[in-house]
Amino acid sequence: MALAEQYGKPAGxxxxxxxxxxxxxxxxxxGYALLSPTLLIMAAAMAxxxxxxxxxxFWSQEGTAVDxxxxxxxxxxxxxxxxxxxxxxxxxxxxxxxxLVTVVLAYPMAYFxxxxxxxxxxxxxxxxxxxxxxxxxxxxxxxxxxxGYNGVINSGLMDLGLIREPLSFLLYNPAAVVVTLAxxxxxxxILPIYVSLEKxxxxxxxxxxxxxxxxxxxxxxxxxxxxxxxxxxxxxxVFVPTxxxxxxxxxxxxxxxxxxANVIEVQFDRIGNWPLGAALAMASMAAVAIVxxxxxxxxxxxxARVR
Amino acid sequence: xxxxxxxxxxxxxxxxxxxxxxxADLGIARGEFFSLxxxxxxxxxxxxxMIAGFEFPDEGEITIDGARITDEPPNRxxxxxxxxxxxxxxxxxxxxxxxxxxxxxxxxxxxxxxxVEDALAMIKLEGFGGRRADQLSGGQRQRVALARALVMRxxxxxxDEPLGALDKRLREAMQIELRQLQKSxxxxxxxxxxxxxxxxxMSDRIAVMSAGRVLQVAAPRTLYEGPNCREVADFIGxxxxxxxxxxxxxxxxVVADAGAAGKLKIxxxxxxxxxxxxxxxxxxxxxxxALALTGAGTASxxxxxxxxxxxxxxxxxxxxxxxxxxxxxxxxxxxxxxxGPEPAAHHTGASVTLTWPADAMIVLxxx
Amino acid sequence: MGARRKRQGGYGLLAYALLxxxxxxxxxxxxxxxxxxxxxxxxxxxxxxxxxxxxxxxADSAMHHALLNSLKVGATVSLVSTFLGLxxxxxxxxxxVPGGGLVLGVTSLPLLIPEIVLGISLLILLNAAAIPLxxxxxxxxxxxxxxxxxxxxxxxxxxGFDKSLEEAARDLGDGPLKAFVRVTLPLxxxxxxxxxxxxxxxxxxxxxxxFFLAGTxxxxxLYIWGQLRFPFKLPSVLALGAMILVASALLVVLAEWVxxxxxxxxxxxxxxx
Lengths: 307, 367, 273
Fold this sequence. Notes:
The structure holds 3 protein chains of 3 kinds. Chain A is mainly α. Helices cover 74% and strands 2% of the residues of chain A. Chain A has a two-stranded antiparallel ribbon with strand order 1-2. Chain B has helices at residues 44-52, 94-99, 109-122, 138-150, 168-185, 196-202, 220-225, 230-235, and strands at residues 6-15, 18-28, 33-37, 59-64, 67-68, 79-82, 156-160, 188-193, 205-210, 213-218, 240-250, 253-257, 263-266, 279-284, 290-293, 303-314, 318-324, 332-337, 351-356, 362-365. Classes of the chains: A mainly alpha, B alpha+beta, C mainly alpha. At the A-B interface, helix 1 of A face strand 5 and helix 3 of B.
């Protein structure tokens, strides 16, 4: 046998010392060393700005200069002024509605891909992924074009003879904002729901069937509860960013569909009252955080009671 | 163990609070087929990985052929490993997989080709060089992993449960092949398995491990006939246990009072049992016991026990019996060849008598 | 009987799925539709086929500048965020890192903070540090948002990895870096390419952070935003938009195809899963 000849590699040259042994062995040390650039950059790039934002929210704008004496005046305005308060409520309400609509509509779609798509699963996923990645601005713009006074719906309906005058209620109001946001974020909602549905062990459903449950009961007793984490995730993923959306209310909201992001932007653009803008931003984040936490807790409680 | 080619001295490895390997001492001879045997979690794989260089001991040293390799990285050790998952590189074909380690030295093309093809011939996969990993069956992948490691000409080949994923028939065939291969190449194999039959059939010597500790190192027959503690006795094969106290000693013959089992006669008792009143653990293998229907004229034998036949499993050339005896929670296991036209297997519920000779009795220390 | 009922239910769901898909795509389809329409108004009825909006758009030098800027920013962002994501994904999947979940949470934070908040707070930071706004500031902002995507794409690639592959390479003689380059990198390459493509796309299409952080150089979304004020410019914006949509869709398909290479055993997951 040609292989049964000299065996063996040269022994190592240097044996490392005790410290080398320690460092080399520590998995955690190696891991953190590798992580450090990314972690440091991300932490710094988010921590510093957020800290400054918080700082600004406690300052005030005097003419062209910023008065850095700590004060709660901006928060008093942000939370106290009725127009702003109404804006908060409206933004939360719009986002809430958008979240509800997108999640409810997305669930059956995600279910279809997870359970019924079979071999075409990959194709379906790509088709659903594409809108996720295409320009958000363009998608909102498309709705502006569709809902406009001389837009697609109006001109189409007029052309078909179904209406004589264009419908003016389509655009520049909260409803337009809701529709546009729901469309723009639809793809986002599918993803987490799909993932959690996909993870469900099919043999659980088989066991349930074996124990007597029909398809509908199986869905409500097994599938739905097990997919709840995905549903909650999807809801949070849609709710949080949409409250702070700027593009949609600007393009399709008009004067009645203004959301919180619009007034924040104004402080940073034309009026130049950064402290107020910062306070508005902090207050809106707090509001969103509170609502989200309450929602997640409530959803978890509700799920836990399913038998 | 001065003739140890692969020396493991006082090796300990901890993961947080858990001690995976506890003060292991082993000397493995050159050219030996050595197995590490034990249940899951006993530390055998950790020990193997420390020899390979993927884990480093917290205490102790490992030497191969006189050279201390304890802290060396895996690529500088004279060892090569066959991984449990085979770890065949999916982006390379069979030829490139086997050639992988050889390429470092940048050998001449002709020589590389020859060595790889010799390896392919050795594992009986000639002509498979162009195949990709996903075109191979499990058994083929296992052999490619073997060839890839052996072509490096290591001093020690390490195998981490390489046959676990194969079906029974293939596994048994591979066991024979591996053993023959090892004998013909003549290098040291360190083989990890949880399957005691596998270890017994393939190894020159076996180290039985449990909870990080090495319990006994011996040749298969010695382990089977002369386990040194209850755990080893229990793990290797099936064993019947009795507890007793010695009541009579003469030379190396001892009689012990084993309660419900009566007075048991032991020949060739070890030192610690050759005194009066010693508390001992007695064990006897199922195949050393003879079973017959009570009253059917049993041969005179040193030890006898009566009971009821609780269950019988007919296995072709022999049968396994379970006998209920008064005072024993677990049934006694008996294995006997099926001779004669009426094996006792037909008579569950019948009264039976078990007999076995004094020298079949194994004496273990009570801990 | 039960089988037939199931089939009907199945068709119902399929119909829903197709409708949903239509709902996702049809509104966006109007952009390319009207970009070929021979009318300055985006309205029915269609008046005729033309490509003049495309020629008008392609001749616009401001658009060229903006496109070039977006390409530069996008390329830089994709390289930087994929690199950072690679380090993090490898660290989290290869090593037993305590607090790994927390680390993942921190790096994913940009996804949960509304873009407007990110935009203004970065603006405040740059202002405080007296750093002028430019394409570099846009790159910085985009990297922040793209790293979580890169990490997600790469982690899903690394997670299915057989750890013993790299160990086998080491066992056969490679040092740690060599083993990574010869074994892990080729196998991770599809994930890396997918990450590059998707982070590029994210940066290319990103509007709000660029809105706050760009200096005098506009990115393409900013250019489009500027054009939206002028109704007569709308059709050529549609033309641009249509082209961007098609290119984006192609890039996504390419990225997903690359990502799925050699992953035959695993079930397909969506990007970001």
